[in-house]
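Consider the tokenized backbone below.
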């Protein structure tokens, strides 16, 4: 008889940068930049040639997004009004690159939590919004640093990269092409964020997560059955970043805002909430799961209001923090890592048989659902 494979989540790992920027620190730096800009351009502003910049506010940020702080890899240059971007010493090709380094840290934690020997891991997917370089793939560098004999590749589906990675890994397991796959999401989102843009300067933070997807036959006693995965993409320009080697910066456009993250936040909010809520409800029906009976939702962490609305539509009532935990307050939006951080920090208390949902959504648009059930 042919063996059938059942993909499960064996463990997860999390790397959190030590440094963190509070809303107060962020707004103080931003408003100093605004005051300096307005002073430097006072004459042009007075004659209407240049538009004065408006200050940011701690109250707005927290009310509009639920974000109170964000971890970053390089706090000082981000807050320095002469720089306002992350910077660190350039590393030689013989040193591990910074994105791979934090991915390795998260992956090591996932491996150790599962008691997994690297000899038994077959593949590494680096699934994240912003790769440090085009090639060699970040995944292959992570694979080599961990000592894994197998294969690796990068995939980018913006904020949905991790759930797309989990389905890809689960499909490898289902097909018998791999039995143990690491999905690593190192998100140094501070690099694509425009720290001078009032509308978005507060959104993102840095982090790395890892998910170990394996065949049930080799998983540790405590694991999560993957009941079903579903992916969806619909093209939209409402979240966009034109950075790339075919859109090279010229001296005139070197600071061009469109080479960084840009969004129409209101439109994203309005269009994505109903799309994702419906997708979850349809997929629950296909899997014969009562959405109202879901024990916990580990939703993408972009905006507290979006999560409140999605959870309400899915559960049929206003979700409390136990049903839909947030990590937005301390991590901000960490792109594809958000729902995995929420899962990593909030799953130990669930009992065998409890069913939950990991769900991502973001640029593309893209959305992914992973329904899971606790075992052991
Ligand atoms: N400080 C103070 N006021 C600000 C501000 C800031 N940093 N940024 C914007 N404002 C002002 C605006 O000027 C506007 O003022 P007005 O009403 O006088 O014109 C007001 O606040 C509302 O701005 P708006 O941009 O419409 O805010 P919002 O309530 O839509 O919240 C987001 C903004 C980005 C938090 C919200 O739209 C969002 O989270 N959308 C979804 C984003 C998302 O999930 N993206 C995916 C990324 S991967």
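A designed sequence for it:
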């Amino acid at each position: 008889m042919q063996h059938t494979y059942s993909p499960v989540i064996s463990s997860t790992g999390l790397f959190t940068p030590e440094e963190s920027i509070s809303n107060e620190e962020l707004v103080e730096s931003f408003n100093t930049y605004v005051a300096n800009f307005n002073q430097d351009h006072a004459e042009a502003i007075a004659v209407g040639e240049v538009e004065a910049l408006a200050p940011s506010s701690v109250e707005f940020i927290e009310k509009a997004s639920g974000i109170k702080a964000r971890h970053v890899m390089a706090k000082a240059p981000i807050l320095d009004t002469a720089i306002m971007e992350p910077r660190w010493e350039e590393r030689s090709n013989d040193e591990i690159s910074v994105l791979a380094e934090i991915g390795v840290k998260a992956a090591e934690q996932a491996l150790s939590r599962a008691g997994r020997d690297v000899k038994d891991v077959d593949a590494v997917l680096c699934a994240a919004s912003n790769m440090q370089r085009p090639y060699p793939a970040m995944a292959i560098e992570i694979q080599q640093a961990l000592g894994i004999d197998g294969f690796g590749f990068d995939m980018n589906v913006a904020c949905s990269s991790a759930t797309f990675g989990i389905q890809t890994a689960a499909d490898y397991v289902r097909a018998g092409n791999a039995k143990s796959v690491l999905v690593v999401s190192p998100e140094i989102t501070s690099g694509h964020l425009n720290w001078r843009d009032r509308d978005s300067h507060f959104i993102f933070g840095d982090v790395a997560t890892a998910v170990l997807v394996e065949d049930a036959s080799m998983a540790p006693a405590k694991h999560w059955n993957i009941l079903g995965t579903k992916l969806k993409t619909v093209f939209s320009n409402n979240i966009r970043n034109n950075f790339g080697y075919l859109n090279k910066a010229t001296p005139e456009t070197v600071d061009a805002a469109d080479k960084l993250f840009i969004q129409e936040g209101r439109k994203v909010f309005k269009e994505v909430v109903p799309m994702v809520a419906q997708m979850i409800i349809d997929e629950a029906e296909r899997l014969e799961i009562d959405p109202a009976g879901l024990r916990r939702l580990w939703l993408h962490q972009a905006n507290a209001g979006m999560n409140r609305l999605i959870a309400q539509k899915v559960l049929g009532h206003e979700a409390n923090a136990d049903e839909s935990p947030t990590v937005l307050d301390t991590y901000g939006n960490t792109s594809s890592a958000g729902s995995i951080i929420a899962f990593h920090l909030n799953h130990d208390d669930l009992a065998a048989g409890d069913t939950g949902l990991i769900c991502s959504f973001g640029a593309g648009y893209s959305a992914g659902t992973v329904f899971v059930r606790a075992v052991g």
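The pocket of coenzyme A is lined by residues 56-57, 60-61, 64-65, 159, 198-199, 239, 263, 265-266, 268-269, 302-303, 306, 333, 362-363 (CB under 6 Å).
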